[in-house]
Amino acid sequence: MHSMSVVIGGQWGDEGKGKIVDCLVPEVDVVIRYQGGANAGHTVKVGEKKFVLHLLPTGILHEKVRCLLGGGMVVDTWALLEELDELKANGVDADSRVYLASSAHLVLPFHRRIDELREKSLQRKNIGTTGRGIGPTYEDKMSRMGLRVGDLLLPDENLRRLVIEKVLRANQYLAARFDAPAMAAEAIGSEIVEHAQRLRPMIVDSFDFLAPVRAGAWRALLEGAQGTLLDIDHGSYPFVTSSNCTVGGALTGTGLPPQLIDRVTLVLKAYCTRVGNGPFPTELHGEEAEALRQAGHEFGATTGRPRRPGWFDAVAARYAAEINGATEIALTKLDVLTGLEQVKVCTAYTLDDKTIDSFPADAAQLERCKPVYTELPGWSVDFSAIKDYRELPENARAYVATLEKLIGCRVRYVSTGPQREQFIDRDQAASVQNRSLGTA
Ligand code: IMP
User: Is 316 in the pocket of ligand 1 (CB under 6 A)?
Assistant: First the structure.
């Protein structure tokens, strides 16, 4: 049994982390999101119902699990209340199991407005953000001007005045920088006070709240959002998000000590996608791209934007495995590749006439990288109901084995379809077999 597991995206987000977290949650007592905000979109299918979560950790769909929005997050209370209400309308009472770290920062409406206007002003050089105010909120955090979740505990009138003051300051910036109209400070102040009235019982000091994890009484799962290649420090800057999606962010975003981590599950999709702008060496175009996009339903869960699809990039995946110290891989959406005659995997890049097999995090260099592919035979048998890894088509297993070799890390989980139960745990199948042989 693991005391602390971290689940991290190994590509540009949208790897299907939500599904993997959902599979691992029955083993844990608390799930913590450690970075990002409502820019994330985790889709989990439970029976006929589809849940798209933006701020809440996926663990919320399991009745007994506590969920913490960690201090490394930026929390939009408008989005949070909408999410809690939607869950309630679908019969999931989340309010009593959601905890908010007092040190997380608050996204205010002007952060969203600044995000939108800045993107517009950059025109074709924009990042392609989700427009959720993520960058501007982290800017305020780093310049020590932000509002934090803990501020919601102030007496109503003090809180209202504090918010009004922040909006008035932002209004000056909006006018000076974008010639944009002022935002309604009084109304925003009053709305935040209303939100605080509902959210106050959920606010905790996360150091105290997580004491049972440090004491070994609770098992924790730390849920990453976005992906390694969107990390502010290790991604293809500036086409990144504004937080640390990688394992370092899991530590600073929760305050939990590193030696408690005994499992890092790197989630990789069986092919790549990227949403937003920025370099993407294995990107496909035209009909091939469209076919993969349709087969994998590759449209953003937060913005609905079509995702850019491409072949699996083993150079980038190895980089992600090493940066995060991955102990195992969860490979998602392998079923989407079923029916292709051939599948390609990028094993190296050519950069300025040289062949390289390391990932340049510098966007300008990555832009010039051309993929070197190895081609593998495809498979056509539908395996969406299979639970035993050995029953996968031989070519699908050969594909997985090739990825393992190139990345240098074992694939433990394979997701075979969108439903909760459609995944293979190779170790579980092995232990079931060992038990039946009387060897466990
Ligand atoms: P931001 O996080 O909204 O500032 O966007 C910065 C970049 O990260 C853009 O390219 C977004 O498309 C991308 N991004 C942010 N969140 C996600 C996500 O959850 N999945 C995939 N891409 C994301």
Answer: no
3-state SS class at 264: strand
Separation between Cα atoms, residue 348 and residue 352, nearest integer Å: 13
Q: Are residues 336 and 248 in the same domain?
A: yes
CATH number at residue 137: 1.10.300.10
> Is the pLDDT reported for residue 278 higher than 70?
yes
**Which residue type does 115 have?**
D
Assess contact for 172 and 183: CB atoms under 8 A.
no
129 is in which domain, residue-wise? 105-202
Query: How many angstroms separate the alpha carbon of residue 87 from the centre of ligand 1?
Result: 24
Q: Do 117 and 83 belong together in one domain? A: no
Residue 437 placed within a domain = no
Choice from 14, 241, 274, 332 to test ligand 1 binding pocket (greatest atom count within 8 A of CB): 241
Catalytic site positions: 14, 42
Tell me the mean pLDDT in the region 416-431: 84
DSSP state of 96: G
Predicted structure pTM score: 0.95
Distance 226 CA to ligand 1 centre (A): 6
Q: What is the DSSP letter of 307?
A: P
Sign of CA dihedral 118, 124, 125, 129: positive
Closest by CA position to 293, among listed 251, 333, 353, 266: 333
For the Cβ of 234 lying below 6 angstroms from any atom of ligand 1, the answer is: no
> Within this chain, do residues 212 and 188 fall inside the same structural domain, yes or no?
no
**Strand 42-46 relative to strand 49-53, pairing:** antiparallel
Residue of 143, 158, 260 lying closest to 211 (CA atoms): 260
% residues pLDDT > 70 (the chain): 97
Asked if residue 97 belongs to a domain, the reply is no
